[in-house]
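Researcher: I'd like a structural prediction for the single chain below. Treat it as a standalone chain; there are no partners to consider.
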Amino acid sequence: MVFGSLNIDIIFPVDHIVRPGETIGSDDLVKSAGGKGANQAAALAKAGLEVYMAGKVGRDGRFLLDLLNSYGVNTSNVAEYDGETGQAMIQVDRQGQNSIVLYAGGNGRITGEEIRRTLACFDPGDILVLQNEISRVGEIMEAAAEKGMRIYFNPSPYDQQLEELPLSRVGVFFVNEIEAAALAGLPPESSPEKILRILTGRFPRTEIVLTAGKDGAYYGCEGMREKAGIVDVPVVDTTGAGDTFTGYFTAARCRGCSPAESLYIACRASSIAVSRRGAMAAIPLAREVFL
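Model: Treating it as a single chain, here is the predicted structure.
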């Protein structure tokens, strides 16, 4: 179960990310499906898992559900309301790097009743995948933990309110360098090895999966450490790369792969994704990744 954000992405290819006080032009505009939750659900489904999506959209977001359904995601737990779906304005520069402005829309209007109704459909041992783009994340965590579900958490975007969440309930953290350093209380330039040492001490028995861009990805749990490098490809668009990684690492672990094998598979999948434009559409299929 992915309980998370569903967004309408409005993407502007630009020469460079706009600076304060600057106005620049774009020679294209792409409207597509996005949201970290929806992207991760798509990645999990494309990787071959049985996936359910929960969240909230307005009438303008029904096409998101149709697209997720086409990938095999069950969207029966996505609520509709009389309002707007979440929106993301994304700039993508010539090097494939992005800058994103989010409007929560339905993602910020999750209710307690929707949480109870959704989690009633799941059992102990089922996996819950969460991000930090929806409301009531802490309430969802507590309810899932009480049911005995295993919680996979991507604390993105990172903010200070995360420290108020019941983070000890998390079974697997997916973090990039900035999020990991903040969670560890360290400067952003800290080494992955130091960050993992702090986080594995703070969260014993929790798996820490740290993505480090061109430096690949790291895994830590208690005294265990693993690392995998990227597959070097021309970068077209990094939007959704982390969500692709999350989906494929999770899928690989569910298939019985070791942490080291899962890191390699997830790095391979995200490398394929960044070589293509878009978020959800760029996520590769299982046959492209599991060789």
